[in-house]
Amino acid sequence: MKIAFIGLGNMGGGMAANLAKAGHDVRAFDLAEGALERARANGCTTFATAREAVAGVDAVVSMLPNGAIVKSVYSADVLGQAPVGALLLDCSTIDVATAREVAAMAEAAGYRMVDAPVSGGIAAANAGTLTFMVGGPMDSFAAAEPILAQMGKAVIHAGESGAGQAAKICNNMLLGASMVATCETFKLAERLGLDLQTFYDISSKASGQCWSMTSYCPVPGVGPTTPADNGYQGGFATALMLKDLKLAMAAAQAAGAPVPMGHRAEELYAAFDAAGNGGVDFSAIIKTL
Ligand code: NAD
Asked: Which of 6, 27, 29, 31 to mutate to test the pocket of ligand 1 (most atoms within 8 A of CB)?
């Protein structure tokens, strides 16, 4: 297939490379020259504008920083420029309302569109092992699935337009809150004189078990190897966790849903980010406790 790829950053760079590796004609665009160079080295053809990249394609994939950029790129450079009927897949993490708005604009202009945000970080993007949660009509999902499968290990239909974004921010709100809870639990266990590996061995087989503990333990030397064992470098940046928590808070407010734990996690991550920790892994918040 001829696939345009817009947004070749930390995530999009690896994803576009995997589509090229799978044999697609990948037509890439990014504002940053360095990103274009990397895309060329990975087998993509690069273009000077998004409009040129989307001309004549079967599908457009985007991986952009936020909802305002997604809306402006689709309305200015994709709709009316890509062939009518093309499949549009936005994999960026953005707010639910903008995802629905852009999908409605796309449908009105004769395109099929899905929101398909991802779980998994840069390593999973490079390895082609992302999990996609997809919102959109069933026929659009069916068309998007084989493309997404070439960049991921799981592709799940979450519901109608915006449902992929809703699933993503709900999941990440739970992740943020459970990470803070895991961190404070280990600090309390330490204060109470427990050996932390022993506590891990108990709690990981008891009712406190959760992903933040058993797959991403914030305590160095305890549980599997995690960013904690690498000075909290790599992994999932605090700034990105804060972005997702802010999206979750905005969605909760719009929906009138009480989220006291998510709200507290957002406050704690906002303070941690403001103290200059935006680039470190989000499990490093344990150092503040
Ligand atoms: P990034 O900043 O590395 O990449 C974004 C890219 O978009 C940049 O290369 C930038 O030049 C480009 N860009 C910005 N405006 C553009 C425009 N108008 N036209 C074309 N290109 C433009 O960010 P990232 O880490 O790759 O994240 C991308 C998306 O994926 C975000 O929505 C993020 O929340 C989500 N996400 C990131 C991770 C992660 O671990 N990094 C994990 C899951 C989801």
From this structure: 31
Any residues with CB less than 8 A from the CB of 206 and at least 6 apart, and which?
Answer: none
Closest C-alpha among 62, 43, 222, 249 to residue 147? 62
Q: Does the predicted TM-score (pTM) go above 0.90?
A: yes
Q: What is the pLDDT of residues 95-138, one digit of tens each?
A: 999 999 999 999 999 999 999 999 988 889 999 999 999 999 99
Separation of CA 281 and ligand 1 centre (Å): 17
As separate numbers, helices (DSSP H) first and strands (DSSP E) second, the chain gives 12, 9
Tokens of 217: 């333990």
What is the per-residue pLDDT for 203? 98
Instruction: Please tell us whether the domain made up of 2-160 is placed in CATH 3.40.50.300.
Output: no
Give me the interface pTM, i.e. the ipTM: 0.99
Dist. CA 64 → ligand 1 center (Å): 4
- For residue 2, report the phi and psi dihedrals to the nearest 5 degrees: -90, 115
Share of the chain above pLDDT 70, in %: 100
Strand partners, 260: none
Q: Please give the angle made by the CA atoms of 169, 78 and 21, to the nearest 5 degrees.
A: 75
Beta strands (DSSP E) in 74-205 are: 87-90, 112-115, 118-119, 130-135, 152-159
Q: pLDDT by residue (tens digit) across 12-44?
A: 999 999 999 999 999 999 999 999 999 999 999
In the residue annotation, 287 being an active-site residue is answered as: no
Yes or no: say if 104 and 161 are a contact pair by the CB < 8 Å rule: yes
Q: Which fold has domain 166-288?
A: N-(1-d-carboxylethyl)-l-norvaline Dehydrogenase; domain 2 (1.10.1040)
How far is Cα of residue 42 from the mean position of the Cα atoms in its chain?
22
